[in-house]
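Retry 2 of 3 after timeout on previous attempt. Resubmitting structure tokens to design endpoint.
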């Protein structure tokens, strides 16, 4: 009987489930194993973590069900020499076909050019070639939609709101939570530097306020770029690009939500369309850079018992406090803030229970 078992291939697809096999050093043949379902860790951005996938391998907090070897391997009749006690087994682990090994090779070059493409194509907007007509047109186009809808979408660009919206990821998919957290510093730097060095008045300072709808406080300066749009697209693109190419096809709605957040900044009269376009470009770049940073994140940061995830849970609790005690951007958002605070609090409690079980098991 073979002394050890290992997975020699991992292939994912709608028509083929992952298969396990053992490879004999004596004959070079692969023997099929009878799999059983056990939890296995999700891949990190650099590929599958190098660990032995056995029936007793414990998963990280984010897990999916994949087949692994159950008990001793059952070699086929064609590999009779495997029954020899002298045979050693060769563990081989191949990376997921949708992942890459080097951080900056996570995405094709054309994807890295996407932020630049958005920036160049939107040049007439941020150069104000079509202003103020374009802003007035879009602002009036959004009038039939109630103001609370736009203010709620705008909350997706607020840091505390984002923490509450993504709080369930802390329990269900910590890798995706880390993806946007890694992108957040880049988004903050891009937005702050732009607002500090670019003198750009807001629409309310140049357009007759009778021709536009203004929701909330009337703002007059520090317009470029839209910080809410940059934040929303940094979070959405970081999560979106952290998914495998197959998963991205089913989750394009994430980017649509971010686009809604950007459009809401025009609908409430806070930003020019050019500010939103530049925010989209910077947010996409922040999301890509965040995934590069995610690729270097240690795998232990995904464990429910690790201190870094507990720190994120504390940040979510801070978000709950501000959602319940502060008015974030608009008074119309107060009911939504309470709802998000409840969701975030339940998510933290679920994570705390999982973390406690992980500590007890260790």
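Retry 2 succeeded. Sequence:
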């Amino acid at each position: 009987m073979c002394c050890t078992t290992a997975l020699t291939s991992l292939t994912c697809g709608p028509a083929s489930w992952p298969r396990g096999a053992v490879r004999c050093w004596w004959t070079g043949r692969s023997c099929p194993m009878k799999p059983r379902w056990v939890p296995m860790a999700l891949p990190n951005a650099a590929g599958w973590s190098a660990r032995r996938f056995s029936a007793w391998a414990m998963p990280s907090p984010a897990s999916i069900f994949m087949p692994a070897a159950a008990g001793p391997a059952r070699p086929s009749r064609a590999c009779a020499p495997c029954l020899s006690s002298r045979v050693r087994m060769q563990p081989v682990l191949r990376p997921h076909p949708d992942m890459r090994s080097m951080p900056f090779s996570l995405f094709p070059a054309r994807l890295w050019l996407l932020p630049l493409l958005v920036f160049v194509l939107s040049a007439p907007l941020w150069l104000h070639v079509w202003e103020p007509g374009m802003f007035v047109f879009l602002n009036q186009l959004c009038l039939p939609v109630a103001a609370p809808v736009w203010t709620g979408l705008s909350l997706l660009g607020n840091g505390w709101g984002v923490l509450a919206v993504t709080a369930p990821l802390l329990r269900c998919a910590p890798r995706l939570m880390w993806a946007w957290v890694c992108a957040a510093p880049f988004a903050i730097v891009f937005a702050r530097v732009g607002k500090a060095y670019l003198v750009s008045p807001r629409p309310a300072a140049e357009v007759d306020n009778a021709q536009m709808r203004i929701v909330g406080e009337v703002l007059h300066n520090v317009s470029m770029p839209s910080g809410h749009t940059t934040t929303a697209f940094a979070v959405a693109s970081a999560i979106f690009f952290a998914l495998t190419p197959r998963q991205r096809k089913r989750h394009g709605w994430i980017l649509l939500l971010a686009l809604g957040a950007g459009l809401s900044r025009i609908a409430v009269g806070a930003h020019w369309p050019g500010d939103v376009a530049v925010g989209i470009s910077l947010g996409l770049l922040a999301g890509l850079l965040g995934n590069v940073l995610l690729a270097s994140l240690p795998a232990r940061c995904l464990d429910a018992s690790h201190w870094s995830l507990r720190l994120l849970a504390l940040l979510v609790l801070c978000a709950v406090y501000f959602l319940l005690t502060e008015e974030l951007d608009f008074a119309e958002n107060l009911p939504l803030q309470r709802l998000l605070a409840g969701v975030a609090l339940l998510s933290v409690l679920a994570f705390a229970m999982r973390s406690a079980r992980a500590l007890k098991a260790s």
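Attempt log closed. The longest helix spans residues 334-361.
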